[in-house]
């Protein structure tokens, strides 16, 4: 059986994105729904992968294209590139995940010296036909033959100058015919071949070019950023051309079934009369709004509205649609579930629940923890002194402050040097991607909410304001003039602030304040609603609240926080934490208290040790009293001391130098000399693999007793005061059950002693961290001594991979990411196939021994969306993350459960 490489639009459906790409699958779906899609077919991603692997087009593909093309021709009664009434097609890229503007599309395939006349006759518009032909040669030259677009652009400019006109469409037939000849000469000169006159050759060459565009640099950058795998390949859609540039009754547009930037219900869109394809997206002319279409062409408008409703009902989500009207006839060229801002995602999800189009569970799948994070970012504070220079279209939310940059290279260079920059352009195009990635925000003078800058910025979650037509951006001179402010000339030295929520552009720094969602998370629904300035914010807060509450209802994972002090603990509780999953105790020994620990390390006699410990006890106990008070009634996992000893001692090199100098000067303090000896003795080549965690507890007499006594006495104090302290004592860096056994015996001895002395029962759970491969593998035995496990996935990643986590980010990780050894740092998202298996193994074996063993995870991964999904699947009981991430973890835990 030969592979099927080609599917007619009437054959596929929306679930075949792997094979047909997003655009192809949705064109097929629209065709199936009976919506007006120009006939065509899709060449599969299989074909692309085969081509990229071998450098050759599979032979079956050519045959199948012939068949599909002839079917389309038969259906329309026209032939590709025929001399009379020619059929023309577009050749359009379309990968599984939409990569707006990243890859190539060639329009008007099939035009040549003969068929251009046929098109002129059929359309009764000679100018249109020649303009289409010159566009084809230009696009084909650029994308298929890799000729620098500047050559065509300057020939076009020269022609306009020659004719004394300023706009493209003012060129007449004679001028366009000349231009076509000039373009052909450019092709001959720079590509070394004649512009192919054979329509089928044009089609095949364009197809290959689309395949190749999968591997352009900008496509690579985009995929890396969006975490899209590099080996998917793109499909190619061959689609009958329809023309929005056939005069005043034609046009082209983009619309959304709801506003993708605010999430307001009600349709939204841009329309351009007498324009083709990319004119809207390129932001070349300022567009009309969708409601203007209602007056211009009520029939098409009505049909479009009906199609929008149909698509939204069908996809049960916000859709965006590309459409073209050819002489009063509506055609749909593309649809997809539309990209949207974080705010729009939350609002649209709850709107759809209210409209009974989706369930609450589904609504949870429509929003992400990353989107919630974006909504938590601060916004500009509205003081009276902000110098507002203009207000334009808010295209992608956020508050960005930075110095002005005018081009990509500068954006990248200055950002790398640590500066915050805002990319300011007349309009952006796909080549600007690296600059957009580097900048903290993007500001354009041209284009609407559907322009390239807006679409790409929204996709990246980057602040963007567009269509600021008061600004005259001169990229060559690197200046911006502001209409109405004649005295003002902005340069690369100036700082501006752009507000992606309001479209405001300010000169200079502007202070930032909590976002409405942050106010909600910190201070609750009522306060946030009162403080919210407008309906949009109020609706957003309500949507977030509803979805958060639903997430809390359905989630199985508990969410705890990592908190070492009462402030952090309080923040965490306000954001919905159900306990502290990791209270690190070493922070309690730093700063001024370091001295006491040093005394302990230096102690020579039992008496010296006793007095060092005695000094530490009240300090540590005081800390716990406060923490227990804050966490009253909620569990709090206390990890006994973990870091390597040397962290409490002076730096070896510095102290050596000091001692040597003092000795020379004769001012040496014998205590320093003694200290140096201790430091030298404790110096380790690999401290993270050295004397730390339980090893330290077992070898330093009195340390474990001190810590447990502080916990126990603090608990008694709270109990006496009527409180409800719930410590869980956790031993770090366990490798063998014997270590835990010894530690546990000592812990329990102290608990019993304090209990007997006080008369309060103190049977706190004692558990351990699983952060060494040996502990995961031997979890069945370790579980015998543990009341709970907490997976320390930071150390577990370090020890499983054998990476030093303090060094790798700066050394070889960049290359590893580029080479695809991993798609994202394993310290950021859990490496499921390696470290994740350790977690699964530990969980499974631990529960073999104790079926109801409580399992948690602490560390960075506890707040990472993808990792949380994994922990849910692995059957853990809770995740613990930083207080700021708690709401994200709650939402993601809810998403994982539906
Ligand atoms: P992208 O993936 O960048 O959106 P598209 O393949 O959708 O690229 O095409 C780019 C532009 O060309 C779009 O505005 C689209 O509407 C237009 N276009 C594509 N195919 C046709 C066609 N057959 N007839 C008219 N316009 C088309
Ligand atoms: Mg498109
Ligand atoms: Mg650790």
UniProtKB/TrEMBL annotation:
Residue ranges constituting the PEP-utilising enzyme mobile domain according to the UniProt record: 419-503
The name this protein goes by in its record: Pyruvate, phosphate dikinase
Keywords: ATP-binding, Kinase, Magnesium, Metal-binding, Nucleotide-binding, Pyruvate, Transferase
Family according to the record: Belongs to the PEP-utilizing enzyme family.
Cofactor(s) listed in the protein's UniProt record: Mg(2+)
EC number: 2.7.9.1
Pfam entry (one): PEP-utilizers_C
PROSITE patterns for the chain: PEP_ENZYMES_PHOS_SITE
InterPro entries (alphabetical): ATP_grasp_subdomain_1 (IPR013815), PEP-util_enz_mobile_dom (IPR008279), PEP_util_AS (IPR018274), PEP_util_C (IPR000121), Phosphohistidine_dom_sf (IPR036637), PPDK_AMP/ATP-bd (IPR002192), Pyruvate_phosphate_dikinase (IPR010121), Pyrv/PenolPyrv_kinase-like_dom (IPR015813)
Record lineage: Bacteria, Bacillati, Actinomycetota, Actinomycetes, Actinomycetales
PEP-utilising enzyme C-terminal domain ranges (all copies): 545-894
Sequence ranges assigned to domain Pyruvate phosphate dikinase AMP/ATP-binding in this UniProt record: 57-286, 295-345
